[in-house]
Structures are given as C-alpha cells and as structure tokens.
C-alpha cells in the first residue's frame, strides 16, 4: 500500500469523526496487518496534524498521553514491574478525568456563554452562573491547596539559613504569581470576566493566603537586619518593580503587603538596634586610648582594618548610614528620621566618652613625666572627639539626603496663666496653645560640634604651652586695669623683675621644647595613618596635613602671647639701662626651635611616636 493511499484513507476516516486509535483499527481490519504494519500511532498523528485534522489537546493532557505511552513501552520489556503498572493506572485515570473535563468544556462552553449574556437580564441566570463558578473554584482549590502549600514549603523551610531567606522569598513570590496568573487564565477559559466576580476573587485570595501567612510568620520571627534588608530589596527590585506596569498581574497586592511588613519589621529592628547598641552603649572603665583599648580590635573587627580603633558607637552608626544597607529599601523620610536619631545619639555618646577621658586618672609614672599628665588627659579627650566627629562628618556628607527633622511642640503657658486668672469662659475659648516649629539639622550639628572641639583643643594646647607667659600677661593686665593704664610703675612690680622674667621665659622655652614634640606626636598618633596600614579614607585631608589645620592656629596664638610680653620688655628696656634685664633677650630665640619641632616629629618613625606618647600616658 502506497504512502499516498494511506494518507488519503486516514484523512477520510478522520473526517468521519474517528479517533486515531479507531483509524488504526479500521486500517488493520480493512487492509490487513502486513499492509499497514508501519502505520503507527505517531504516524497517524503526524498525518492528521499536517492536514489540520488533529484534535486540539491541552498541553497537560498531551504530556500525560506521552507519559502513558512511555510506561507501556517499558512494560512491554519488563512485564513484572509492579511499580510501572501502578503508575500506568494512575496516569490513565488522570487522562480519563482530563478527557472528560475537555469534553465538558466543549459541551458546557456554549451554555456558560449563554448564561453570562442573560445574567444581567434575570437574577436566576446570575445566581445559577455564580453557583457554577463557586463550584468550579471549590474544585480548583481542592486540587491546588495541598500541592501549592507543599511547593512553597519546599522553597522556604525552617532549616534554611538566614542568608538564603531572601532568594527563597523571591522564588516563592515568583511561583505564587505564576500560579495565580495560570489559574486566572484557566478561569477565563470557562467563564467570562465580569465586574465584582466573587468566585475569582475567592480563588485568588485563597492562593494568596497560602503564600502570605507562612511568609508573614517568617518575617515576624526574623531579627536579622541584614536578612530583612535583603528580603525587602529582593521583593522591591526583583518582583514588584518588573511587574509595576502590568495591571493584569494577580496576587501582586499580597506581595506588596508582604514587602510593607518586611519594611515595618526592618524599621522596628533598626530602632531597637539604635536604642540598644548606640543609646544603650556603656562606657568602658578602661580609657579608650590608642593602645589600651579592648574595643580596638574585638567588637568591630568585622568592620574592616580601616575602622580599627573606632569607638563602638561610630561603626554601628555608620552601618545604618551605609548606602548599601537600609538606604535603598526604605522611604526617604523614614530613613532620614532613623539616620538623624542615630547620628544624634552617636554624637552624644562621643561627647560622653570624651568627658570620661578628661576625668579619668592616669597610672603612675616617673616624676619627670608627671607634668605631662594634664596635657595627656586633655589631648586624649579632645583628639578622641575631633577624630570621631571628623569620621562621622565625612561619612554623613557623602549622603544625598538631608538629615533634617522638623519638630512641632505646643506651649501651654498662656492657657495656664488664663486659668490662674480665672477669666470668663468666652475668653478662655479664644486662648489656644502656641505652636512652635523647629528643625534639627544633624549635618550642621556635626559641623558645630567639630568646630567647637577643634577650638577647645587649640585653646587648651596653647594654654598648656604658654602657661608661664599667660600667668605674667594676666598679672600685667590686672595691674594696668587697677592702675588706670599707668605703665611707669609697672617696672617696680615683683613679677617684672629680671630674675622673675628670666624664670618665666625659661619655663616657657622648656614647655616649647618638651610639649610641642609631644603634642605633635599625639596629634599624629590620632589623626595620621601608621606606615603600612590601610589608608583611612574617612579622615580625608586631615591624614595628610594636620599641621595647617590644628597646629597653625596654636603657632599664631603662641606668637601673640609672646608678642604682648615682648612689647612690654622692649618698652621697658628702652627706659632702663640695667644690663641684667638684657640677659633675657637671648632667650627669645624660642621661635627658631618651636617652628621646626612639629614638622620634625611628623617625619619621625612611627615606633618613636608611639614610644614618646606611651611614656607619658602609661607606666
């Protein structure tokens, strides 16, 4: 039998309504097995598809048929395989159910379409259609609930690590969106969409609940800020944002609801972190110096080598402000409030630590170094504050957002005054509390605190170095104030005698030679980076040039303090021929030494700097 004849016979039989299996039986009975032994079921299906006579099978039904054929081929070779026989029974039963459903679709389609058209004309038709839709949804939920729940549980399970929670949530969200979209398409295949279709809403809401309830419990149980941030970021960037412009996506609202729940839990955990780790930070009993700090390496070692030696509240604050953290997943106003609170509490903790450093008692040291201990206390306190405020400012200035919070409060003073005066009720009704508006700008607060800390450091360094000269200048000023500015009798005062002045100038020069190098070493130890260490990008220009920023004002004040005394000395020398007084003039060469002490120390080896500071700070 020729292939052309086989094709013609198959097409004729298909047009009569015979199925592929019936066509095969008819050909075998009509022409005999030898004539049609090469005409298999796949051959008949290909011919029918080529001529447009193949049945329009659903994809799932076609897949089950192929699976049943594969199992039958396996059983032909392994007839004793009981598991394969059982699987074949299950697959064939599902094929029969889907075939009946397909037949029902072909027969019920016109009826459902007619009911939809007449539903607006008569309530009976509408009620009948709603009952059919409800029954369909009931069957679909009965079929889907267990498989969907099992699949979601396999994606996100209790033994999962926190680091895997975000990608698992993204996968579960994508899965439930796909399932809901497919179920909506399945519903549309049987029923026409109408406004306020309760059955479809019930179907989608049940699927959404199967996704939302377990995920909400997981979010409530999660206390990791990093995990919550990753979940919020995944939901926003990978799920909500790609479907933002698609209005036909079902169950997207429940994903948005979950995203809001994650944001709320993240805000709560950040607030708790700020209150516990920053506001609740307890000062260490041991002074937070540069070499004797327990928190120098341990608490924040994971923050990186460049942050080693920072006071604990600073890296904790910066972890909140980091752009890769919660900045991307929260609304700008919410983030500004959290950041402003964290920065304010951080500044308060830094100021408290600085005050603690200024009050702490230093260990005993050699008698020759005891004079340096007040200077050590002052410089530790002020340089600690300057360094950390500078770090905080450099990090905050990198943000595009403004850390400004508006505050409103009521003033009831006028109301209480009116009540005390016992005014009539009509007048009392006119009186209202005054509303005041105030803005808290954390960036400006950091700048003002940093400026005040630098001014205090410069003033205190100058006072420690010029202490003998400052005392003499104070005595001179008090005398001139009481004598009406009469300078002629100033030369007769005891503090203006040559021996007294020589001791004062000698003490001043001794301070310059001893305290200027120590001050330079202290500044370098706090603000400069050690050789071979990681460059501290947070300190900016301060690392490279602390001299013009901190030391230049000290030099100018030293010159001013000396200049006032030198002017009086020159005035008196011009009126007095006592050569013993001129012996004080060679001591005025202090500037040649003082101007080079600071840069010399800044060039010394790092080990020498550490040893110089440690001798006066620790025994």
UniProtKB/TrEMBL annotation:
<dbReference type="GO" id="GO:0006412">
    <property type="term" value="P:translation"/>
</dbReference>
<dbReference type="InterPro" id="IPR000589">
    <property type="entry name" value="Ribosomal_uS15"/>
</dbReference>
<protein>
    <submittedName>
        <fullName>COG3 protein</fullName>
    </submittedName>
</protein>
<dbReference type="GO" id="GO:0003735">
    <property type="term" value="F:structural constituent of ribosome"/>
</dbReference>
<dbReference type="InterPro" id="IPR012606">
    <property type="entry name" value="Ribosomal_uS15_N"/>
</dbReference>
<dbReference type="GO" id="GO:1990904">
    <property type="term" value="C:ribonucleoprotein complex"/>
</dbReference>
<dbReference type="InterPro" id="IPR007265">
    <property type="entry name" value="COG_su3"/>
</dbReference>
<dbReference type="GO" id="GO:0006886">
    <property type="term" value="P:intracellular protein transport"/>
</dbReference>
<dbReference type="InterPro" id="IPR009068">
    <property type="entry name" value="uS15_NS1_RNA-bd_sf"/>
</dbReference>
<dbReference type="GO" id="GO:0006891">
    <property type="term" value="P:intra-Golgi vesicle-mediated transport"/>
</dbReference>
<dbReference type="GO" id="GO:0017119">
    <property type="term" value="C:Golgi transport complex"/>
</dbReference>
<dbReference type="GO" id="GO:0005840">
    <property type="term" value="C:ribosome"/>
</dbReference>
<dbReference type="Pfam" id="PF00312">
    <property type="entry name" value="Ribosomal_S15"/>
</dbReference>
<dbReference type="Pfam" id="PF08069">
    <property type="entry name" value="Ribosomal_S13_N"/>
</dbReference>
<dbReference type="GO" id="GO:0007030">
    <property type="term" value="P:Golgi organization"/>
</dbReference>
<keyword id="KW-0687">Ribonucleoprotein</keyword>
<comment type="similarity">
    <text>Belongs to the universal ribosomal protein uS15 family.</text>
</comment>
<dbReference type="Pfam" id="PF20671">
    <property type="entry name" value="COG3_C"/>
</dbReference>
<dbReference type="GO" id="GO:0005801">
    <property type="term" value="C:cis-Golgi network"/>
</dbReference>
<dbReference type="InterPro" id="IPR048685">
    <property type="entry name" value="COG3_C"/>
</dbReference>
<feature type="domain" description="Small ribosomal subunit protein uS15 N-terminal">
    <location>
        <begin position="1"/>
        <end position="33"/>
    </location>
</feature>
<keyword id="KW-0689">Ribosomal protein</keyword>
<dbReference type="GO" id="GO:0016020">
    <property type="term" value="C:membrane"/>
</dbReference>
């Amino acid at each position: 039998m020729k292939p052309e004849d086989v094709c013609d016979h198959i097409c004729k039989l298909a047009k009569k309504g015979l199925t592929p299996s019936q066509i095969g039986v008819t050909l075998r009975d009509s022409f005999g097995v030898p004539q049609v032994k090469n005409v298999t079921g796949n051959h008949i299906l290909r011919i029918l598809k080529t001529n447009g006579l193949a049945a329009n099978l659903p994809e799932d039904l076609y897949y089950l048929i192929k699976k049943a054929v594969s199992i039958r081929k396996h059983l032909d070779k392994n007839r004793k395989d009981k598991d394969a026989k059982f699987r074949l029974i299950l697959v064939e039963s599902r094929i029969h159910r889907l075939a009946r459903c397909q037949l029902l679709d072909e027969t019920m389609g016109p009826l459902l379409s007619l009911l939809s058209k007449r539903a607006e004309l008569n309530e009976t038709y509408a009620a009948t259609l709603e009952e059919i839709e409800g029954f369909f949804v009931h069957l679909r939920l009965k079929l889907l609930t267990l498989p969907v729940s099992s699949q979601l549980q396999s994606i996100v399970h209790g033994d999962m690590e926190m680091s895997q929670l975000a990608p698992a949530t993204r996968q579960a969200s994508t899965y439930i969106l796909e399932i809901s979209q497919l179920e909506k398409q399945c519903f549309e295949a049987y029923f026409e969409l109408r406004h306020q279709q309760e059955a479809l809403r019930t179907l989608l809401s049940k699927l959404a609940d199967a996704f939302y309830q377990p995920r909400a419990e997981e979010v409530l149980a999660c206390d990791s800020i990093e995990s919550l941030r990753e979940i919020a970021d995944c939901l926003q960037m990978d799920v909500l944002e790609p479907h933002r412009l698609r209005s036909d996506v079902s169950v997207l609202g429940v994903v948005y609801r979950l995203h809001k729940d994650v944001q709320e839990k993240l805000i709560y955990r950040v607030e708790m972190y700020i209150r516990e780790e920053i506001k609740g930070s307890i000062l260490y009993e041991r002074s937070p110096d540069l070499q004797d700090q327990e928190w120098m390496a341990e608490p924040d070692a994971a923050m990186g080598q460049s942050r080693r030696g920072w006071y604990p509240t600073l890296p904790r604050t910066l972890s909140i402000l980091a752009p890769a953290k919660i900045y991307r997943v929260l609304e700008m106003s919410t983030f500004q409030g959290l950041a402003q609170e964290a920065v304010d509490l951080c500044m308060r903790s830094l100021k408290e630590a600085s005050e603690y450093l200024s009050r702490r008692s230093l260990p005993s040291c050699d008698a020759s170094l005891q004079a340096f201990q007040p200077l050590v206390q002052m410089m530790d306190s002020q340089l600690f504050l300057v360094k950390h405020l500078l770090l905080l400012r450099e990090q905050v200035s990198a943000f595009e957002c403004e850390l400004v919070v508006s505050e409103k409060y009521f003033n009831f003073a006028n109301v209480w005054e009116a009540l005390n005066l016992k005014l009539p009720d009509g007048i009392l009704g006119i009186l209202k509390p005054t509303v005041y508006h105030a803005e808290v700008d954390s960036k400006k607060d950091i700048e003002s605190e940093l400026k005040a800390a630098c001014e205090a450091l410069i003033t205190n360094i100058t006072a420690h170095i010029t202490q003998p000269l400052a005392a003499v200048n104070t005595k001179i000023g008090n005398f001139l104030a009481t004598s009406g500015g009469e300078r002629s009798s100033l030369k007769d005062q005891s503090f203006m005698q040559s021996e007294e002045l020589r001791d004062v100038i000698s003490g001043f020069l001794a301070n310059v030679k001893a305290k200027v190098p120590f001050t330079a070493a202290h500044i370098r130890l706090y603000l400069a980076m050690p050789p071979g260490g990681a460059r501290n990008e947070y300190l900016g220009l301060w690392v490279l040039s602390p001299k013009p920023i901190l030391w230049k004002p000290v030099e100018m004040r030293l010159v001013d303090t000396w200049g006032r005394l030198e002017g009086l000395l020159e005035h008196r020398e011009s009126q007095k021929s006592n050569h013993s007084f001129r012996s004080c003039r060679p001591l005025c060469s202090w500037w040649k030494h003082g101007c080079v002490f600071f840069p010399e120390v800044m060039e010394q080896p790092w080990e020498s700097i550490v040893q110089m500071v440690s001798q006066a700070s620790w025994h």
